[in-house]
């Protein structure tokens, strides 16, 4: 009889423990989701200057269904606004590097100037092309302020290819890929500015 009582007590404690765990998971799930979203927002929005937007850009995605450009592919985009007016676009681009796909986040202001860019994913050679993934990347920072026409289209290339830009030391293919993706994004913005800043897409 004593053994039966002990078994029942253990079973009750086990059920209580399971119930408590499930309740805690249910109670904390919204907070975890909120924190994960905030973390993603910080990761994606830190290219935008402080005070340059007052909306929630991640709540205003652009309809970019894998737009294939000359050298890269646009995966998604977001519109940032201030006082109801477009202030910037965030474009997530994918280009083929030396070791595989490189995903870049590219921020462009409403005038078509590059605000900044960073690698979100890459598998380039550590110490060489892998330096594109440094946060921040001094090499990518050198493109800030550039636009499709500054320099002109033909100058969007490495100096060794008769362009204007230096490469990441020892990483010609990675550098070419990133420059091509940045130029593609700026050209796409320039050619579809009106539809993009109105929150629509254009294939």
Give the topology:
Elements lengths: L1 H44 L15 E2 L4 E2 L3 E11 L2 E12 L4 E9 L4 E8 L16 H4 L30 H20 L1 H5 L6
Antiparallel strand pairs: 1-3, 2-3, 3-4, 4-5, 5-6
Q: How do the helices and strands follow one another from N- to C-terminus?
A: HEEEEEEHHH
Per the principal axes of the C-alpha atoms, what is the gross shape? elongated
What is the count of helical runs?
4
Q: Helical proportion?
A: 25-40%
The share of residues in extended strands comes to 15-25%
* Gyration radius, in Å: 24 Å
In whole angstroms, how far apart are the ends?
76 Å
| Unreliable residue runs | none
Structural class: alpha+beta
Number of beta strands: 6
Q: Average pLDDT value?
A: 87
Total tally of structural domains: 2
Main sheet makeup: 6 strands, antiparallel
Task: Give a concise summary.
It contains 4 helices and 6 strands.
Task: Describe the structure in your own words.
With 203 residues, the protein is α+β, with helices and mostly antiparallel strands. It folds into two domains: 1-45; 57-197, no CATH class. Helices cover 36% and strands 22% of the residues. The protein is built from four helices and six strands, in the order αββββββααα. Strands 1, 2, 3, 4, 5 and 6 form a six-stranded antiparallel β-sheet that branches. The longest helix has 44 residues, at 2-45. The protein starts with a helix and ends in a 6-residue tail after the last helix. The model has no long low-confidence stretch (mean pLDDT 87).
């Amino acid at each position: 009889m004593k053994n039966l009582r002990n078994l029942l007590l253990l079973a009750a404690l086990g059920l209580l423990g399971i119930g408590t765990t499930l309740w805690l998971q249910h109670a904390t799930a919204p907070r975890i989701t909120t924190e994960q979203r905030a973390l993603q927002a910080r990761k994606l929005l830190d290219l935008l200057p402080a005070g340059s937007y007052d909306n929630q850009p991640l709540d205003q995605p652009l309809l970019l269904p894998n737009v294939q450009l000359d050298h890269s592919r646009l995966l998604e985009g977001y519109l940032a606004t201030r006082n109801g007016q477009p202030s910037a676009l965030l474009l997530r681009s994918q280009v083929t590097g030396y070791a595989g796909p490189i995903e870049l986040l590219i921020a462009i202001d409403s005038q078509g100037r590059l605000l900044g860019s960073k690698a979100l994913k890459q598998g380039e050679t550590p110490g060489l092309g892998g330096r594109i993934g440094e946060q921040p990347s001094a090499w990518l920072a050198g493109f800030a302020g550039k636009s499709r026409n500054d320099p002109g289209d033909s100058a969007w290339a490495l100096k060794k290819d008769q362009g204007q830009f230096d490469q990441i030391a020892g990483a010609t293919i990675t550098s070419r890929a990133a420059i091509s993706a940045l130029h593609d994004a700026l050209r796409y913005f320039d050619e579809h500015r009106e539809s993009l800043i109105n929150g629509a897409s254009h294939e």
